[in-house]
Amino acid sequence: MKIDVRNLSKRFGNFVALKNVDLDIASGELLALLGPSGSGKTTLLRIIAGLDFADGGEVYFAGENAANLNVRKRHVGFVFQHYALFRHMTVFENVAFGLRVRPRRERKPEHEIVKRVKRLLEFVHIEGLAERYPDQLSGGQRQRVALARALAIEPNVLLLDEPFGALDAKVRKSLRRWLRDLHGELNVTSVLVTHDQEEALEVADRIVVMGNGKIEQVGTPEEIYNEPANSFVFDFIGESVKLPVRIENGGIWIGSRRLATNDELPASGPARLFVRPHDLTFGEVSEAPLQGAVRSVRRVGALSFADVRLDYGGDDLLVEASLPPETIVRAGDLVGLTPRRYRIYEDGAAESLTSAAL
Ligand SMILES: Nc1ncnc2c1ncn2[C@@H]1O[C@H](COP(=O)(O)OP(=O)(O)OP(=O)(O)O)[C@@H](O)[C@H]1O
């Protein structure tokens, strides 16, 4: 089911929660709505679901204006972080619920309901838990039940709002892979709300980055990560180091050093260079555009990071750079750093002006 969102806006009192949101969701895709807390993700999801109404704009389900479709007619399956299962019902009964409450003429005979629920429980790998009650399940198992329950009604659209938000990091990771695989088999149009960039990057076909009720960028995970449209997206997705630079005489100036680039540059003036820590290459002090003293070295799992205090045109700036495995530095060492891949954004402005890969 294809969903088109057109010029949607929503206010809560004076607060603008959504501003002129336009979005096309392709049939069968898994789309992630990603953004900081309060950026409007849940509001957008609730309007798509028919649980809330927009002040302006429309939502179309397969070309039909959804204003004419109530929640039930939209055939939407939900999985919410806090969408509790019915505590007094077993897993089996929870999953069967949506099928049993259908109007009599649409309801399947009991033996078909039993067959379908069994198949769904197998599908989400919890067939052994059918007779348990929600209290007797782990958080991850509960979310599998919630998903089986959402799928029971054969939804046209699956809406997931931080479905793994309450789970620990390891379970989250395994459940999101599982969701990715499951979606590969089902191909039901799905919208996943998350504020976890890693989750969105790993699971989604496309990501919508939201900030302050607006869409900042829509793209594949690769596009969002490698070609962030503006400084907001760069900063929100992954780690970033921000360096004040100057554009002058057709070059990028970091303090008194010029950064080699063949790219077309924006107009002269102050700008900001955004670079991922792993794109800062360690090298000869005399040749690198950035120099500084290593303050400390840390290991996080398999990765090592060095905090480098840059001598930056009189200012001290602390940056965190990833250390390649073969590079050994110690606190106190003087090192050179070169931004290998970076993007330049006008100072204070949201536009991306240029990017470079040396
Ligand atoms: N019923 C409401 N009344 C007043 N303000 C609301 C209401 N619902 C949401 N808001 C406000 O609208 C903004 C967007 O909320 P929304 O829940 O869509 O954000 P979100 O991106 O999903 O955030 P989170 O990740 O924290 O869930 C927030 O500032 C929120 O406080």
UniProtKB/TrEMBL annotation:
One of the record's GO molecular function terms: ABC-type sulfate transporter activity
Record organism: Rhodomicrobium vannielii (strain ATCC 17100 / DSM 162 / LMG 4299 / NCIMB 10020 / ATH 3.1.1)
Sequence similarity: Belongs to the ABC transporter superfamily.
Entry superkingdom: Bacteria
Gene Ontology cellular component annotations, sorted alphabetically: ATP-binding cassette (ABC) transporter complex
Stored InterPro entries: AAA+_ATPase, ABC_SmlMolc_Importer, ABC_transporter-like_ATP-bd, ABC_transporter-like_CS, Mo/tungstate-bd_C_term_dom, P-loop_NTPase, Sulph_transpt1
Span of domain ABC transporter: 3-237
Ribosomal protein as UniProt keyword: no
SUPFAM superfamilies the record matches: MOP-like, P-loop containing nucleoside triphosphate hydrolases
Keywords, alphabetical: ATP-binding, Nucleotide-binding, Sulfate transport, Translocase, Transport
PROSITE patterns: ABC_TRANSPORTER_1, ABC_TRANSPORTER_2
UniProt-listed Gene3D superfamilies: P-loop containing nucleotide triphosphate hydrolases
Protein name: Sulfate ABC transporter, ATPase subunit
